[in-house]
Design goal:
By secondary structure, the chain is mainly α. The protein has two domains: 355 residues, no CATH class; 116 residues. It is built from 23 helices and four strands. A four-stranded mixed beta sheet has the order 1-2-4-3, with helices on both faces. α7 crosses α14, α10 packs antiparallel against α15 and α15 crosses α16. The longest helix is centred in the first third of the chain and has 40 residues. The chain is globular, with a radius of gyration of 27 Å. The N terminus is likely disordered.
């Protein structure tokens, strides 16, 4: 059969133009950005270890293991002896399963790789969102660097990374739907249902939908107002699809309005502008405020409202800085892009400004392609030893690895199966990772679960308040595994009722002397 005839016999849908195959094999600029971010943030130095700087990661892994073993979301806490019958909302149970699954397959390397990939994917999509808005690659790159820097304080292997990714995705979907309405936006409903089981940050979507509905109403656009109001109601209803139903929302409401909680957790405090990350947030803050008036004048109140809302939230609580960066980057990039186009429009092609303008336009078309190289790159990292210093345990600079390893049998071995440990809250998640469901611990990072009285007692104990001995007797501690800098350490050394069993550069291990009771 002639070659031409044979080619014609192949159905059109089965043929792919050679140019398309070539583009699939050649990495795009956004692919390169993903790889560069992975390299700079996590692969160089001890970057992967920084993702495990929060002990709550260990608690999420153990909770995921428990859910996979029991096929049910827990309703009682299996880790602490303080309040075993108190209801517990494991409201991030789907994230726990994700962390536990990759941990079972690849250990802490898998947890770190999953987390780093989600963070870099979110930043890459934010970059592409800015390009979609018409910003040049130079503007989008600059604002991505600022967003990454401002958000870096939250680059941890914890469920909030799913909110970072989904915030980028859903804000782009809403942006696209405002310009070109279609049925695709209703995918936000199942996304909301999944998001509610991953992290409490699903409220970001509800806020965004509410702002879009309010903006349409302000414009007198009833069709859009009804559309986004309907989406708000549908997505809100979808979030009820979780193991705890409406009780989850009640718990989050009480959590967010608990003044004692907001004052006792670092990430709920206002940002302190004394670090590089907060300097980048400050730049984004001023850029956002600079474009608000122009956005209002051009009838784009939805973007102005989102910037104002999340700027206020970020100034109130550092945990909202990432969401502010995601909300502010696309409109700011577009406004800077418009200014750039005006500045370079009249420049001759042979001039330096014109050459730069045309080069940037030439590269722009290659920035948003999707090739095979990001999946290939991740497969290489996953199935080889290459990729930097992969974690085999939590960072010893943050947690008492050696102290625990030497004394694990003493603390929880024969005769101490029901031992009670006074521990630092920031070590709690790590100890849960090591002990599993054992009820050995006093406290961990779940302040919302323990409540104000337990947190108050914890603060009194670590500061060696006048009633520390009465509290130690009430909670019936057998051991105290505490950091060096706790005032309680000196009080325990001076007390005849406690014996120092071991110490290292992280802390002390004390055992109560029951023979003196």
């Amino acid at each position: 059969m002639p070659v031409q005839a044979a080619t014609a016999a192949i159905p059109a849908q089965r043929r792919m133009a050679p140019s398309r195959i070539w583009l699939l094999l050649v990495p795009s600029l956004s692919d390169c950005l993903f790889v560069i971010l992975m390299w700079l943030l996590f692969m160089s130095g001890i970057g992967w270890m920084t993702l495990l700087s929060d002990g709550d990661t260990g608690m999420h892994i153990q909770t995921g293991d428990l859910i996979l073993a029991t096929h049910a979301a827990p309703v009682r806490d299996p880790y602490s002896f303080v309040a075993p019958d108190k209801p517990w909302y494991a409201w991030e149970w789907l994230s726990d399963i994700a962390f536990a699954s990759v941990h079972a397959a690849a250990g802490l390397k898998g947890v770190a790789l999953l987390s780093g990939s989600i963070i870099c994917l979110a930043m890459m999509l934010l970059f592409r969102h800015m390009l979609w808005r018409g910003a040049g690659i130079h503007v989008a790159t600059l604002l991505t660097v600022l967003a990454v820097g401002a958000s870096s304080v939250h680059f941890l292997a914890r469920p909030h990374i799913f909110t970072t990714l989904l915030a980028v995705v859903t804000m782009w979907m809403l942006d696209h739907d405002w310009v070109n309405p279609g049925r695709r936006v209703w995918l936000l409903v199942p996304i909301a249902a999944v998001w509610a089981n991953l992290h409490g940050g699903f409220l970001v979507l509800i806020v965004g939908l509410g702002v879009f509905a309010a903006s349409a109403l302000l414009r007198g656009d009833r069709q859009r107002a009804y559309r986004y109001a309907g989406l708000t109601g549908a997505c809100s209803a979808a979030t009820l699809i979780n193991p705890y139903g409406w009780n989850l929302h009640l718990h989050i409401w009480n959590y967010m309005r608990a003044d004692w909680l907001l004052k006792s957790i670092d990430e709920f405090l206002s940002p302190v502008f004394r670090s590089e990350s907060m300097f980048k947030f400050e730049v984004l803050l001023f850029l956002g405020l600079a474009v608000i008036l122009n956005l209002i004048r051009s009838g784009r109140s939805r973007e102005a409202l989102l910037i104002a809302f999340w700027a206020h939230a970020a100034l109130t609580s550092i945990r909202h800085v990432t969401i502010y960066a995601i909300a502010v980057a696309p409109p700011v990039a577009e406004q800077i892009g418009i200014a750039w186009d005006r500045w370079t429009a009249a420049s001759a092609r042979a001039s330096a400004k014109g050459i730069l303008r045309d080069l940037l336009r030439e590269f722009q078309g290659h920035a948003t392609r999707t090739s095979i190289w990001v999946p290939v790159f991740l497969c290489v990292l996953a199935f080889s030893g290459w990729g930097g210093q992969w974690p085999t345990d939590f960072p010893k600079e943050k947690f008492p690895l050696d102290l625990f390893a030497r004394n694990e049998r003493l603390i929880a071995g024969p005769g101490h199966e029901n031992a009670r440990i006074l521990n630092a809250d920031h070590w709690g998640g790590y100890l849960i990772y090591k002990f599993g469901p054992s009820r050995h611990l006093f406290i961990d990072g779940r302040s919302d679960y323990y409540g104000p009285q337990v947190v108050k007692d914890y603060v009194a104990l670590r500061s060696a308040a006048s009633n520390w001995q009465e509290l130690a007797n009430r909670y019936k501690f057998d051991f105290a595994l505490i950091p060096h800098d706790w005032p309680l350490a000196g009080a325990l050394k001076r007390s005849g009722g406690w014996a120092l069993r071991d110490q290292d550069n992280q802390g002390f291990l004390f055992e109560r002397r029951h023979d003196l009771q």
